[in-house]
Amino acid sequence: MNQTPHIAILPSPGISHLIPFVELAKRLILHHDLHVTCIIPCTPNEPSDATKSVLESLPKPNSRTIFLPPVSFDDLPDDANPSRKISHTMTHSLPSIHHVLKSLVSSTSTTSSPPVVALFLDPFAIGALDIAKELDIPTYVFFPTNAMALSLIFYLPKLDEIAASYDFMRDLPEPVKLPGCPPFHGGDLFASIQDRRTDTYKKTVQISKLIVSAERIKGFILNSFVDIEAKVIKALQEEKTIYPVGPIVQTGPPRQDDGDSECLTWLDKQPRGSVLYVSFGSGGTLSYEQMTELAFGLEMSGHRFIWVVRRPNNEFPNAAFLNHGPKNPLEPLEYLPNGFLERKGQGLVVHNWAPQTRVLGHISTGGFLSHCGWSSTLESILHGVPIIAWPLFAEQKMNAVLLVENLKVALRPKADGEDGIIRREEVASVVKALMEGTSEKGRIVRHSIKQLKDSVVKALNEDGSSTRALSELASTLKNMATK
Ligand code: UDP
């Protein structure tokens, strides 16, 4: 009988969770000889070229992809936010997930792959737990983000009680203290739990209760590593089985959807460490006013930059499912200030998408103005690039607190007054502080990122903490396959 362990992975829709899931799968296939089936829930526009190209990077023949039928957004209001779209897609995909998993557990040794021994779920796919229970499939949750976020998920049912008399988390009178984490101001917690009156809030609390109480979850796999979150990982390990296997970031040859290599050719011509890379992840957007201030601020700083621009949006800071993915050369750049494109002598503007890991790994890149998405954060640390923290949504404000206050690898510009806009003067000043390292804070950040990069290299060594955690997970899966 074929004893290769076969696992199924179920990410939630969207490229930013798909990338770490696929990268985790690659490591399990290449280093631990596992067989992986990717079950991919689809929104109306999926599978996009970007999604297909990420999945095509999986090694063959030990991997297979099954696209679920696309879920229509027709019954959602036009202004539904991305969290709601994700949750809608997952809920409506459950019957097809059931169908696929049922066929995967009943595969026999006569079929090309052995039966699945475990299911790796995205936290947004937690609704599939009941199916796993019915089919008796041991389940792991892969958290593409960090230990702090998992800690908040565990704490949320209690926080819900503590915050019972407030509509907004930002109004909590005391900082929230999660075990092993820096204290968080209520306004810095996940964006999805800020307004307690919304369906998104209720759904997040519901997911959190399911995760806390699910006995079927055998363990939590984190895209983090011990040195970056030692205390919180230790606190979590006292309660649950935790595998900190990160950083799991994009590797391998360039993907087709990375766009042309204009950025890289341009970077080749710039002095070492001279370029600030500015990007807000796969879907992050700014308001029109903020975009204008950022444009002028970059210009005023006098530093070289690559800016991945995306059409501004005054409603949502996250345009995922609207326009993520590779660049669309037809979209106009009219939203940049008049004359900016002609004047931007020291900068390069790229539309919508850049080959980020290659930009961060380029010798000319010396700083990253980032929305602090967790994958972007890990990619920056891995390449030793200091950060300007500009969080927008999801758990990004918590990440910014970790980066600025605990790890001291990022500077955070201050917003001016009530409107939350970061003005051009502040942008210019923080860019100069980071790129020139002339201020005390700038020097500390540039020094600390080098140290953190060394600790990542250690974690990923043959005997490093993340390598060991992944091997431990793989052996557990192999044991399941031989039972
Ligand atoms: N990314 C990229 N090019 C871009 C923007 C994003 O390759 O122009 C990749 C980036 O390298 C990272 C992922 O998309 O792997 C974004 O994930 P992150 O968690 O940073 O942010 P999110 O997209 O979830 O907001």
UniProtKB/TrEMBL annotation:
Enzyme Commission number(s) of this protein: 2.4.1.-
Cross-referenced PANTHER family: GLYCOSYLTRANSFERASE (PTHR48046:SF6), UDP-GLYCOSYLTRANSFERASE 72E1 (PTHR48046)
Domain of life, per lineage: Eukaryota
Annotated InterPro entries: UDP_glucos_trans, UDP_glycos_trans_CS
Enzyme class: transferase
Matches recorded under CDD domains: GT1_Gtf-like (cd03784)
Family from the record: Belongs to the UDP-glycosyltransferase family.
Species per Swiss-Prot/TrEMBL record: Morus notabilis
Family matches, as Pfam families: UDPGT (PF00201)
Protein name: Glycosyltransferase
